[in-house]
Amino acid sequence: MVNKVTTQNIIAVIPAAGVGRRMGANLPKQYLKILGKTILEHTILKLISVKQISRIVVAASKSDPYIADIIKPYSDVITLVEGGQERADSVLAGLNAIEASANTWVLVHDAARPCVLTADINNLISQCIKLERGGILASPVADTMKRDDGNLNISKTEQRKGMWHAYTPQMFKLLELKQAISKGLANQAEITDEASAMEYIGKPVLLVESNNCNIKVTRPDDLALAEFFLQKSIESNKE
Ligand SMILES: Nc1ccn([C@@H]2O[C@H](COP(=O)(O)OP(=O)(O)OP(=O)(O)O)[C@@H](O)[C@H]2O)c(=O)n1
Ligand SMILES: C[C@](O)(CO)[C@H](O)COP(=O)(O)O
C-alpha cells in the first residue's frame, strides 16, 4: 500500500480510517456524499487548493472498498497508507510514510473536516513558519462550560476565559511530531490530537483562530450544516 514520499515542501496527512460510529450510517462517514462528492474528496480538494502542500498522505482502513476510486483522480499527489486502531495510530502511520528531512513541516487534517477555509489553512501555515512554532486552528469557546460529577449533576462551572475548541489542521515539524506521538502511544497517554502529543513532551503549541465553519462532521445533524458551509464556500469562490 505504501510508496515513500520524498519532498521538502509541506506534506499533509489525512487520517481517514475511522468507522464513524456516532454517525451511525451504513458506511464510514468520510464516504457519505454532500453536494455530489464524498466528504473525503471535499477535504482532499481543500488541501490541494493550498499551494504550499506538495503531497497528501491518506490513512485509510485496510479493508476499505471505497478509497481506491476516490483517490484515483489525485494519484499524482496522494500516497495511501493503512490506518490504525485509534486516530493517533493512523496519523503515525501517515507520518512514517513520509521520507523527508526531519525539519519538514507536516500538516494533519481530519477527513471529517471538509468545510475548513483555505484562507485559514494558509494563515496557520504562515503563522507557524513565521514564528517557527507548531500550531493548530482553534476557536474560542462561546458557551458557559460545566463539569459534571459523573452522574448528570453539575459539579462546577469551569472558567471559560482562555478555553478553545481544538480543530485541525494541526501543523508541526515531522520529526518532533513523530517522536511526540510515539512516546504518547508507548506510555498510553491520551492523544486525541497532535497538539496533545506535543503538550505531552512539553512543547509549546500556537493557537491560530479559525472560522467556526470548520466543524468535524460527527453526527447526522452535522451533514446539513456541512452542506450549508460547503455551498457557501463554493459560491464565494465563484465571486
Ligand atoms: N482509527 C482511526 C479513527 C479516526 N480516524 C480519523 O480521525 C478523524 C477524526 O475522528 P472522528 O471524527 O472521531 O471519526 P470516527 O472515529 O470515524 O468517528 P466515531 O468516533 O464516531 O467512530 C476522522 O477523519 C477519522 O476518519 C482515523 O484515521 N483512524
Ligand atoms: C483532532 C480533533 O478533531 C480535534 O478536535 C479531535 O480531537 C478528534 O477527536 P475524536 O475523538 O477523534 O472525535
UniProtKB/TrEMBL annotation:
Enzyme Commission number(s): 2.7.7.60
Any one of the GO BP annotations: isopentenyl diphosphate biosynthetic process, methylerythritol 4-phosphate pathway
Alphabetical keyword list: Isoprene biosynthesis, Nucleotidyltransferase, Transferase
Top-level taxon in the UniProt lineage: Bacteria
Site (Positions MEP for the nucleophilic attack): 160, 216
Pathway: Isoprenoid biosynthesis; isopentenyl diphosphate biosynthesis via DXP pathway; isopentenyl diphosphate from 1-deoxy-D-xylulose 5-phosphate: step 2/6
Reactions listed under catalytic activity: 2-C-methyl-D-erythritol 4-phosphate + CTP + H(+) = 4-CDP-2-C-methyl-D-erythritol + diphosphate
GO terms of molecular function: 2-C-methyl-D-erythritol 4-phosphate cytidylyltransferase activity
Any Pfam family hit: IspD
Biological role: Catalyzes the formation of 4-diphosphocytidyl-2-C-methyl-D-erythritol from CTP and 2-C-methyl-D-erythritol 4-phosphate (MEP).
Name the UniProt record assigns to this protein: 2-C-methyl-D-erythritol 4-phosphate cytidylyltransferase
